Automatic annotation (TrEMBL):
It comes from Rothia amarae. The lineage of its organism: Bacteria, Bacillati, Actinomycetota, Actinomycetes, Micrococcales. It holds the Pfam family HemN_C. Signal peptide: none annotated. This is Heme chaperone HemW. Keywords: 4Fe-4S, Chaperone, Cytoplasm, Heme, Iron, Iron-sulfur, Metal-binding, S-adenosyl-L-methionine. NCBIfam families: hemN_rel. Coiled coil: none annotated.
Length: 408
């Protein structure tokens, strides 16, 4: 449905989101090169005409922050201090570090920041230097997530990544010396990637001693450059068995190096180094997305901004909501999303939570749980308040487990 121009949230969603943690996401859509597998809202150009370019982004983001604060206040929402702030993209560090700090400081001046808040920016290993990282650390950032993807030049080339592998340990070390938590993102399953090459990337990543490692399977979305190359027969994708072998290898190597899984694709050294911001998504709490194409959620209402930077800028200048459309989730949709998201995390869900608001009878649910236990997909469950948690085998088949635990 169309999003209201004043950005107001309905009273039922305001009440449902009351008192829940509040996170902020800032989407910086600029990249130096658009990777062949990427289907995010990103642009490999700096200028869009009509005065819209890299240098105007910070002022536009600050203007949307003002709009967000006013809309939440006028909706009667209870605004809690920011639980986490995440700058993603695109490549946020394509704009000056001083602009990222300026956006952060304005957000904190409006909403406040909880005492243990996590403040993260993504960065490509070739998009920051030591001075940039120091500016971020002194400006209030607590964490940097570096897009490593692979340690193998051949694989990086297939993925259209521009950095050299030697950049990664250097930027991780700079961030650590600045007192920041560090994360590296890896992608497995690139066309032609071997198990040995994936192992090389994993062992390189753990040798840098980051606090957190993400290991994502490559998903080739229709319409991307890589999808077109696969369609033309220029590239081959690994089969499901090969992808499973890569995930099992990641779980073993990361586990041996002291990284614990806390979400299917995410591993940390301990509880304190888990990604607070990503956990906010998996728990489906409140967040406001700033920037072109950014998504937001409050108490069951979801909306998303217009994608193109020029269209976004025009709305910001007119002081109307940059949201393109919105939707209000039904209780059934909210239950489905809760199950889908929370089963991915290490704590899982209780049997009572899975049952939802009479979504399924206790007998039906217990029959499903017993079957999943016998298949080795979930850990053993006994009392009603016990948690349903995926086993290693279950993590490989998480979507199937989710479907089994939802009402038919």
């Amino acid at each position: 449905m169309p999003a209201p121009g004043d950005g107001l949230i309905g009273s039922e969603s305001v009440q449902a989101g009351s008192g829940k943690p509040f996170s902020l996401y800032v989407h910086v859509p600029y990249c130096s090169v658009r990777c062949g597998y990427c289907d995010f809202n990103t642009y490999a150009q700096d200028d869009f005409g009509d005065g819209v370019n890299l240098n105007t982004f910070a002022d536009e983001a600050i203007a949307e922050l003002d709009f967000a604060h006013s809309a939440l206040q006028n909706s009667g929402a209870e605004i809690t201090p920011l639980h986490s702030v995440f700058f993603g993209g695109g490549t946020p560090t394509r704009i000056p570090s001083t602009d990222l700090v300026r956006i952060l400081h304005h957000a904190v001046s409006l909403f406040g920041l909880s005492s243990h808040a996590e403040v993260t920016t993504e960065a490509n290993p070739d998009s920051v230097d030591e001075e940039d990282i120091q500016i971020l650390a002194e400006g209030g950032f607590t964490r940097i997530s570096f897009g490593m993807q692979s340690a193998v030049p051949r694989v990086l080339k297939i993925l259209d990544r521009t950095h050299t592998p030697d950049n990664v340990p250097k930027v991780v070390r700079w961030a650590q010396q600045a007192g920041l938590q560090t994360s590296v993102d890896l992608i497995y399953g690139a066309p032609g990637e071997t198990l040995a090459e994936w192992e090389q990337s994993l062992r390189a990543a753990v040798s840098y001693h980051p606090d957190h490692i993400s290991a994502y399977s490559l998903i080739v979305e229709e319409g991307t450059k890589m999808w077109a190359r696969i369609r033309r027969g220029e590239l081959d994708m690994p089969d499901d068995d090969a992808m499973a072998d890569m995930y099992l290898l990641a779980d073993r190597i990361l586990g041996e190096a002291g990284y614990q899984w806390y979400e299917v694709s995410n591993f940390s050294t301990d509880i304190s180094t888990r990604s607070t911001h990503n956990l906010a998504y998996w728990h489906n709490v409140n967040w406001w997305g700033i920037g072109p194409g950014a998504h937001s959620h409050w108490g069951g209402t979801r909306w998303w901004n217009v994608k193109h930077p020029l269209a976004y800028s025009q709305r910001i200048r007119q002081q109307i909501s940059p949201a393109q459309a919105c939707e209000v989730l039904t209780p059934n949709q909210q239950h489905f999303e809760d199950v889908m998201l929370r089963l991915r995390i290490r704590e899982g869900m209780t049997v009572r939570e899975l049952q939802g608001q009479n979504q399924m009878s206790e007998d039906q649910l217990h029959q499903k749980i017993q079957w999943l236990e016998k298949q080795g997909l979930i850990e053993a469950v006994e009392p009603l308040n016990s948690r349903v948690v995926l086993t290693l085998k279950g993590r490989l088949l998480g979507d199937a487990v989710t479907r089994e635990l939802l009402p038919e």
